[in-house]
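If you are new to this repository, start here. Below is one unmodified record pulled from the training split, so you can see the exact layout before writing a loader.
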Amino acid sequence: MQRRDLLLWALASTPLTFNATRLWAAAQDASPRFLLVFLRGGYDAANLLVPHGSSFYYESRPNIAIAKPGTSANAAFAIDNQWGLAPALADTIYPLFQRNQVAFVPFAGTDDTSRSHFETQDRIELGQGAQGARDYGSGFMNRLAAAIGGDDTARLSALSFTDQLPLVFRGSEAVANQSLRDVGKSGVTDRQAKLIAGMYAGTQLAGTVSDGFEVRNEVSREMSREMAGEMEAANRNAINAKGFAMEARRVARLMKERVHLGFIDVG
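And here is the target side for that same chain:
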């Protein structure tokens, strides 16, 4: 299955209408939202979603496997007869699963066998085939944004909550990025913004520049009143897990109002 097909299938859970080239939401209030949370640091998937029904899992991990459900205080707790969750998730992910707000997709990944952390991240963000040269200017969420489409009243239909535009959102579709950690500390004053906009007036980039500053201002208006300076520094410009827990509410609020496709990474 192609990643774009999977996402389009997920978006189709909300009433949609089709035309020859675009996928449109039936109504603004009913349109779906999709937020990709990218774990830069990664985690041991088999010790988070535990295949307790697999003898191979326990044969392969005699020292680090999480015990079968019911065998000890630190055992996995079953979600069905094959899979369980790590006990560390008892108060977080598991309650969401019980309310049908979380689903798991095991065995999802790439065919990359390089064991390179960075190579794997690139492949996931690009979402391109393993054969041939890769186009680092075409991330899969940028292609998704182009496939879904939008209109002039939804200039925030796609937004990356990051310091820089990530690989996943690079491409022909104009996508803004805005880190919420420093939203109240703009590096450009209003006077400077007007001067920059004036430099591009009458050019093909005039609309893009104007929209960029509008994104910045709108995010600032929506979020600055909630800023409390509690964010901590994180590796490689990605927020850490504690920072994400605090930032998630701001992301949710902005996505509810305007953003349909969002991206945030956690270090």
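Two things worth knowing about this chain: The chain has a mean pLDDT of 78. The first strand starts at residue 16 and ends at 18.
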